[in-house]
Amino acid sequence: MVKSLRLTVINDNVGTEGLKNDWGWSVLLESEKWRILFDADTEPEVIEHNDRVMGLNLKNLDYGFLSHYHGDHYGGFQYIGKITQNLRVFTPPSSYKILEKWNLDVVEVEKPMKLMDDVWSTGPMGFVREQALGIKVDSLGLIVIVGCSHPGVDSLAYKLKILSGEDVYLTIGGFHSPSKRRLDNLAKISKYITPAHCSGEEAKNYVKSKYREKFIEVRTGSKITLP
Questions:
Q1: For residue 130, what is the domain's CATH number?
Q2: Can you give the residue range of the structural domain that contains 132?
Q3: Quick check: pTM over 0.70?
Q4: What are 157-194's pLDDT values in tens digits?
Q5: Which of 76, 123, 212, 218 has the fewest Cβ atoms nearer than 10 Å?
Q6: What is the number of domains present in the chain?
């Protein structure tokens, strides 16, 4: 059972002084049991710089997780492959074998499944074959981490809610310029909402104005500690 979870935004489109950033998304997830890197931005140099400046010690990871095979989510895994030893990375199925070339141990997730205790993948969804990650935190509920939400952020969150049997506490990541309808659907099932990366200012402003009590803002370097 995961008792606590810390989320550190290694890269988001919105920058912070002293850290590098570009168009991309990467989050370090740390519980008392494991350290998981969710996506790895676009450029290895960005991840390397922020790893050093923030003292993240990305050499010491237990798993990687790739939401989908777009460059702004997998590019930085090149750096991770250099500093780790055959890190296991959960990815959607693909014929694109770039992560293997970077010294990473790819495990393809072909269907919705529990990856470890209290951690689930939606499995590949939609035409992009994108997966999202759900983590149950004791006393809070499910934390949903998404990459770009091509299948719809509400659909991904709902899938993990059904898989885990848990209420959604927080949904964070790229929402891919969602419609108001999708954001309204998400607000019905997620206690807190954290749009980032490709969500767009319109979506952020909509959540901030209509669901102010649910909105949490993040950028490169942000940290969320739960509970």
A1: 3.60.15.10
A2: 5-226
A3: yes
A4: 999 999 999 999 999 999 999 999 999 999 999 999 99
A5: 212
A6: 1
